[in-house]
Each structure stands twice: as C-alpha cells, then as structure tokens.
Amino acid sequence: MSGDAVAQRPLFGGAIMTTFPLRFEDVSKIRDVPDNQEVVVDPSRDESLIFELLDMKHELPDDQSAAWFLQDLANEQDAGLVSAIQQSAVLNAPGLTYRDMPAVVTTAVGQMAISKGRQGREAQNIVKVYLANIRLRAVATDVLIVAYEPLLINPLSETAGTVGAGLAVPAAQVGILPMEEVFKLAYSNFTINDWSLFIN
In terms of pTM, does the model score above 0.85? Predict the structure, then answer.
C-alpha cells in the first residue's frame, strides 16, 4: 500500500480538475509555463506530469493519435526512442461529452533518451514516457497528459545532482505510487468544470 497522499487538483484556474499525488509541485511557481500548459513535478524523483491543450489535429485517426503525439514529442525534444511505442485501444470518455459530442481517449507508452534543458546527447537519461490524448471534438481540442518517469539517470545529467545517477529507485521501494499509477489517476479523473476555457 502506498503512503502517497493524493488529492483532486485544479488546473487552468480550476476550469479542469484531476487527481494526482500532493508530492507534485506546480512548476509555474518557479518558472514560466505556456498558457496552454500546466506542469507539475516531484523534484526529489525528477518525475513530472504535463497537461497541454492543443488545437485538434483532425487529420489524425483516433486509433493512432496518442502514438503520433508521443513520436512528435520525441522529435521535439530531440530524443531517441529506445523502445517501441505501445498504444491502447480507443476508449470512450462519456464524462467529457459536450454538446452531445462524445470525447475519446487513447494512451501510448514508450521509452526515450532525453537530455535535460540545454544539455547535449552525452547527458541523456532513459525515461519512460506515458501519454494520454483526450480528444474533445466539441471544442476542437486535443488534450495531452504526459508523464515522465526516469529509469536511468546519466551521471552527466543535471538531474544526477538532485536524485543521484544510475537506476532510479522503484516507487514501491520508497512507499509512493508508481508513475504508471499516477498517470492513470490523472487521465481517468480528468474532468472539465468550465468549457468556456476552450471557447475563444
């Protein structure tokens, strides 16, 4: 059993709510975050959750969208994909229906070699990346929920000074929820309180 305290947390000024552990801190208190993102991090483990609102990519089929976004993320971060991407089936999200238009969600998981900040490839960490794509057709929005779980910290990475180099300590060993469970909590408890957030 995990000793990780979880709570419902507001995003985007309370327009969206979801659930994740209290150990995750709001990054916007430390640095600027784009208006279309909310970023929370557990600095002691270098684990992070990113919630991002994007204009819908209508040309993407639902059954390929999460994998496409994960590959796009790897390209954007100049990350090497270490393992093949696994994508889930398309699931209906009836709680996110708006104007009689249902939403769907797909997830994808992969491992990447990612450098922190401006560090080069020689400092890449091996990170498991979980991505959920919630497709809100009624408001033409792709919501991305991305969770980063470091598996192997490079000694040259700036992260090594905080969390230590080498294999990451398994969450269960320190009595907290594994990142896979944190990710599931975040996307399965995603609710929208104010749909005007999406309407310009």
Answer: yes
For domain 6-198, say whether CATH 3.40.1000.10 is its number.
yes
CA–CA distance from 33 to each of 12, 15, 153, 169 (Å)?
11, 17, 25, 28
Relative to beta strand 141-153, strand 47-55 is antiparallel
How high is the pLDDT of residue 1? 44
- Per-position DSSP letters for the chain, written without gaps between them: -----EEEEEEGGGTEEEEEETTPEEGGGTS---TTEEEEEETTTTEEEEEEEEE--TTS-HHHHHHHHHHHHHHHTTPEE-S--EEPPPEEEEEEEETTEEEEEEEEEEEEEE--TT--GGGPEEEEEEEEEEEEGGGTEEEEEEEEEEEEE-TTSTTHHHH-SEEPPPGGGGTS--HHHHHHHHHHT-EES-GGGG--
Rounded to an integer, the average pLDDT of 67-74 is 91
Residues pairing with 49 in the sheet: 40, 147
CB neighbours of 30 closer than 8 A, spacing ≥ 6?
A: none
